[in-house]
Amino acid sequence: MDKETNTTRKIAQQTLNKRIEEKLRYLEDGQIKEGVTFSELIEEFDQYYKRTVKPSTFASWKNLKARILQNFNSDVLVSKITNKYLTNTLEAMIYQRGYNNAYVSAIKSKINQLMRYAYRHDYIAAPVGQLEINWKRDNSAKSIEDKYLDDDEVKQVLEAVRSVKPVYADVLLWQYLTGMRIGEVLALQVKKVFQEDGQWFVKIDCTLDYSYKPKSEFTISSTPKTQSSNRTILLPDEAVRIYRLYSLGKQPDDLLFSAETKTGIFLSPTSINNRLDIIQKVLGLSKPLSTHIFRHTHASKLAELGVPIELISKRLGHKDSTITRQIYLHVTKKTAARYSGLINSLDV
């Protein structure tokens, strides 16, 4: 400050006091550190989280962070936050502000993570955040069926995509056959597919880093989305056919699915999803189409074949998934109902 006046001295003292308070928070280990607001907790967590997760995961958090700050009281003291306050706020988002269950569930998970961070850093005396939410009753059979495609829908969609962009159709077909995430498919190198003892496998150990980036800045992350995503899975014959077609004339390090453009060789998940959005309208489908629905459809087909949920989860590369479990239960119930008439007709 160039000129010393009462105002500048006051500002300087306030700045100093704030720095002292910040220092005290870290010096009072073992005691609850009072005076920390919810918005300050979020900003501190933000810096920690950025160092510990992938850029794509952090980008997703930034969106949720903005929504959390919009719906929760930023000035409330962390030490005063209760389960009742968090539950009431989340339920208000559902019933008063029109957010759907899935989105509020994602925010709830982040709130739990924030409160665990607060507990570890002595901002609260006891764990907070294991919340019982009164969800809207929208998990009907219809909503579960919207998560995956039936056989006729798969054929319809793939044919429509193939008529415009054949490589997109084969990417989606690969997802349907393997259950891989779109980022895993578009980062797949030729060398990651191999034959052993007469069977073909694909090793999944990386993903495309594309979230909130222009296509020219896409890169391959050296690790998959999560540790459980690191896996090797068996390929069906149709996937092997696709591999042979797209690997022809390529080097081991080359991408299996690619296209030479001004902005690079990577295919864009956003472009594929945009194409699916158009096709949904053209075909008049009520189900929302995205690349992810082909991953869910793979899970539904395995469930239909009687593959145990644990093996499906392992193949998909996650420890647990609510959606996958719901699809599994729904499909297996439908399959059981299909044969109930035959069972009832059993006689001597």
Kindly describe this structure.
The protein is mostly helical and 348 residues long. Helix content is 55%, strand content 6%. It is built from 14 helices and five strands. The strands form two sheets. A three-stranded antiparallel β-sheet has the order 1-2-5, covered by helices on one side. Strands 3-4 form a two-stranded antiparallel ribbon. α4 runs antiparallel to α5, α8 crosses α12 and α12 runs parallel beside α14. The longest helix has 23 residues.
Entry keywords:
single chain, 348 residues, mainly alpha, 3-stranded antiparallel sheet, two-stranded antiparallel ribbon, 5 strands, 55% helix
Alpha-carbon Rg, integer: 25 Å
Q: How many separate helices?
A: 14
User: How many β strands by DSSP?
Assistant: 5
Mean pLDDT: 87
Structural class: mainly alpha
Reported for the largest beta sheet, the result is:
3 strands, antiparallel
What portion of residues is helical?
Answer: 55-70%
Order of helices and strands: HHHHHHHHHEEEEEHHHHH
Widest sheet, order of strands: 1-2-5
Runs in which pLDDT lies below 50 for 5 or more consecutive residues are none
**What separation lies between the terminal Cα atoms?**
99 Å
